[in-house]
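Chapter summary example.
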Amino acid sequence: MNKWIVAITVMLPTLIEIIDTTVVNVSLDHIRGSLSAGIDESTWTITSYLVSNAIVIPMTGWLSRFFGRKRYLIFSIFLFTFSSFMCGSSWNLRSLVFFRVLQGMGGGALQPISQAILLETFPSRQRGMAMAIFGIGVMFGPILGPLVGGWITDNWSWHWIFFINVPIGFISILMVLLFIVNPPYMEQRKMKIDYWGLFLMMIGLGCLQIVLDKGQREDWFSSQLIIYLSFISVSSLILFVMVELSSENPVVNLRAFKNISFSTGNIIMFFVFFCVFGSTVLLPVYLQTLMGYTSFLAGLALGPGAIFTMLSMPIVGVLVNWINPKAILAFGVATAAYSFHLMAQFNLSADFYAVSWPRIVMGIGVGFFFIPLNTLTMSGIKKEGMGNATAIFNLTRNLGGSFGVAFITTMLARRAQFHQARLVEHLTPFSRNLQQALPQLSDILSGRGFTLSFPNQGSLGVIQRELLRQASMLSFNDAFYVLSLMTMLVFFLVPFMKKSKEPTPVSGMSE
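The structure predicted for these 511 residues follows.
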């Protein structure tokens, strides 16, 4: 079978699944109004998808062996397609949340399976190109999701952000039936079901995802709910690790971490995507709240980064066959760290170019980082263990993004409060700078048609608003500096990666 037809077949449903992870965000207000829901209630349409998605991803390798990979892939696409139609047809918020859970269950398997199939289909010398194809979908989907969701919602209705998946889903099922063939080691087989592993993993990851999604909104450990969920999550995941290491047929084969490159690659992936996803949250907020950009203009400012990622990945896919992948990976990590350093220089006078350039640098860095990391991480994994390995790797990437978003939103709020308190210290009635500024502001306001005396509430109000803007700007600078530092620290893990000439079997995997 032509490898390029196989690549298109597996990436088509994967791309729409990745887009659906973020497409609802921009339509949330429309959904809330249409279904008469509160703000906190409506966010469950996002959380429910993320929770079910996070639970299914690590199970993908086991489920593929249990049901047969091709059969399970078709079922996943069908479930995703059917639940998409039902999401668009939802009659109230509860029904929408329920079908979003089903949609997450169907979509969770698509990324690991598509990555595993690509790595198996392309020969080892072309795995860089295979990961370029996969990387374009993974990186471009989160950028495309909000843009597509916003346009569809504005021009049609929020229902169509789900309905549009239906024809693509059916085309994908037809292509899988025609072009995907199971290798012998991925045919359906009888296995003992690891009930305790399944139960502990679902509870642990489900509670963890809710904590990360709701933590900042609930003020973290000031909330009894967050404390209880955190305790349940940590204890369940510890027990899960113990159960899986002692099980003959584990849901997730953790013995893959015996491979040093695989373990190091997962750590690097976690922290780099921690920073990348954190920055994707910071930038739109900075542009829209402080710089006055509309959603569309913010998308235009961020778009060049995704374009340069797409342009760089095919180039890197070829380079990994000629240059040591570790050198390319080191360059990608350093470039991403430098892009965050550039973002830390943002101010309230930054123009469109000043905002777009760091995103372009980051897009190049991500392109040079993603492919060699995937290649090095999976180089020591045999084909029959690839499904398990890609499931763990995709879970690590998603968890890194979830932790990054939770951390960065919390840091932004806390540092804004810190800078506000420090700036207010200098705004006392006896401050010479304040005494000099108030008459100037009074003159400015008077020139706009206001008759004001000095001192006056109007001038103080202008100063207060400016103080809040400056405090917020400083908090953004702090957050980007932290992301830059974290990414640079990851740089020192690169030497631990090594490319195996011959993949070694993972103990405990069925041969």
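To summarize the output: The chain has three domains: 1-191, 194-248, 257-503.
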